[in-house]
Amino acid sequence: MxxxxxxLYRFALRMGDNALVLSHRLSQWCGHGPVLEEDMAQTNxxxxxxxxxxxxxxxxxxxxxxxRDEDDLAYLRTxxxxxxxxxxxxxxxxxxxxxxxSFLFDAFHLPxxxxxxxxxxxxxxxxxxxxxxxxxxxxxxxxxxxxxxxDGTDESHRRAQAALDELxxxxxxxxxxxxxxQALAKDGTIPALADLRKEWNATVDRVLGEAxxxxxxxxxxxxxxxxxxxxxxxxxxxxEMQVLQRAHPGAEW
Amino acid sequence: xxxxxxxxxxxxxxxxxxxxxxxDWMPDDYRKMLVRQISQHAHSEVVGMLPEGxxxxxxxSLHRKTILLAKVQDEAGHGLYLYSAAETLGISREEMIDQLxxxxxxxxxxxxxxxxxxxxxxxxxWLVDGAAIINQVMLTRTSYGPYSRAMVRICKExxxxxxxxxxxxxxxxxxxxxxxxxxxxxxxxxxWPALMMFGPSDKDSVHSVQSMKWKIxxxxxxxxxxxxxxxTVPQAEFIGLKVPDPDLKWNEKxxxxxxxxxxxxxxxxxxxxxxxxxxxxLAARRKAHEDGAWVRAAALAHAEKQxxxxxx
Lengths: 253, 312
Fold this sequence. Notes:
The complex is a heterodimer of chains A (253) and B (312).
Chain A: H1 4-27, H2 36-64, H3 70-75, H4 86-89, H5 95-116, H6 122-151, H7 154-167, H8 179-186, H9 197-210, H10 232-241, H11 243-247
Helix pairs in contact in A: 1-2, 1-8, 2-6, 5-6, 5-7, 5-9, 6-7
Chain B: H1 3-15, H2 28-47, H3 49-56, H4 62-87, H5 93-101, H6 119-139, H7 145-173, H8 177-196, H9 208-213, H10 221-238, E1 249-251, E2 256-258, H11 264-274, H12 278-291, H13 293-311
Helix pairs in contact in B: 2-4, 3-4, 4-7, 6-7, 6-8, 6-10
């Protein structure tokens, strides 16, 4: 049986990993966006997410009680120890893929944070309350662009649909609660993840409808990220991200 | 009124320190000179995102990564203010970007040098932004109103950029032997290119005289360069780094540092396109622009459909 502390630790780590990995992916657009305003918008979102990640990872380190700080957790864990969902680690692809990936995650992230903001753990509550405002904007940004792509030109429509079709199998994992998430849902610290599906479905159907994009059928769903089994992409991402910390053990930066 | 009368009045206004505004009469050459300078400045901000962007994914701590992201984002914002300032002179952002991508417009040559180690993030902030600030503080008093106001906003953010760069090098210089060597190596590589940022000596500078007369520029290149050196050398000493100039010496009489000869051949060569990263920088901008073409087309098509719906 998992203690409450341990469940909280695992959950804080998960939230931190999701935010950190997505932030990293979005930051790869910085300097390379399709238009300067989008460079700024994606960097803004990346900044919000890295801020959230730092709050979660700091909290996770305290819960663990082994003296690890945010950087120890971010830079000195292997990909097998990262517990983010696979959706957020997928490489950026074209701009439609990036937008669709964000949209599918944001539509899940926002109701989760809203429920956490009235949950039982004070620290998570405080982090979520601030993050709700940020992620409200993230969802608006990704929704608006998905509509632009769906409604815009034949090419943008085709690209957006292809992105959704490709990404769909990574959405199942969002709602699969692991042992920690089940325990925390039971005592009202976080919502039951399966319960978020209703709001996610409503958001997805509304935005896809407006975008005249087709909702892909639920087929086989990928999973494993939550237990540290990732796509091949995460290892490369972390190798790059962690290079200085690994090459200069113990150095201050 | 004949042009000569206009020109006389224009110069009188400049001499009286009145700002020129977009709708005011101005000599064609004044407009041209400003478009050239402001668009170059805007391009420099945007191309300048690339050498630092090169390290965003490898920043060594979450704190450093946050600061670097925020800084590069500021540069995108500066690019936007400056493109807007240039647009008040009757050129569109698209035209300016085309000029850049076709190699017809310049940007600051400093961004054609590679960022090879993390310490380069420190050197860019401290030296490159430090040199830019000296130039930009002068430009807050430039005669063209929109440019001057853009500079006021930009200067506020640049001083934060310079501080964060200096802090990176300060931390490295107190670190492991490898980190110290990394910091010194960065100073060795960036020092001379940073001095070149102020442009050729005034006696060799083609545009300087007219630019000063119109008060677009307010101080000469040599004076600005000297200010930078006098300010920066003690900062290097403070963190135990050695400026790579054997001729550098404090001169009691002039109360300035004397310094060695700048390799203007290298400067001209980099401007001509032969710097280490000229091709890479333009290729990266072209790729972003071309890959983004369908995105911009989609946004436009959607906006037009929305407008039609509204009208119906």
